Amino acid sequence: MNRNEARELMMQLLFQMEAQNEYNVEIKEKFLQDKGDLRIQRPYIDQLLDIILEHKAEIDHTLEESSVNWKINRMSKVDFAISRLATAELLYMDDIPTSVSINEAIILAKKFGTDDSSKFINGILGKVAQKIAEA
């Protein structure tokens, strides 16, 4: 499994967690149970979920501030999961270049979102990246 596939799995896991309004490691383990060979990407998956669980409020606040005229509870669950994943990478995973996080989010949006999802997510993540650069 490569990093792109791991991001796709994480987006699906975050979507499921948001839909069920339940965020915990047990759900991750159950979700990943039959997903094939995760040895190479398991550290990334574990680290990203740990970051999201620990900093969910800050990540969501950053998304809320960056999505002009859109409250996060109005976003589609797919767009929200993708944005949350990428924002966690942007804020807390310094080893992943900003452009990679944004580009991968756009790819996920084109694959799983609506026709407008990629533009919407690109706009939000661009603002997140700008705020990080200004800090």
Give the CA-based shape. Answer: globular
CATH superfamily: NusB-like
- Rounded to the nearest angstrom, the distance between the terminal CA atoms is 35 Å
Strand content: under 5%
- Written as H for each helix and E for each strand, in order along the chain, the element string is HHHHHH
Instruction: Give the helix proportion (percent range).
Output: over 70%
Largest sheet: none
Total discrete domains: 1
Number of helices: 6
Number of distinct beta strands: 0
Mean of the pLDDT scores? 93
Radius of gyration: 14 Å
Assign the CATH topology.
N-utilizing Substance Protein B Homolog, Chain A
Structural class: mainly alpha
Provide a short characterization of the protein structure.
The protein has 6 helices and no strands.
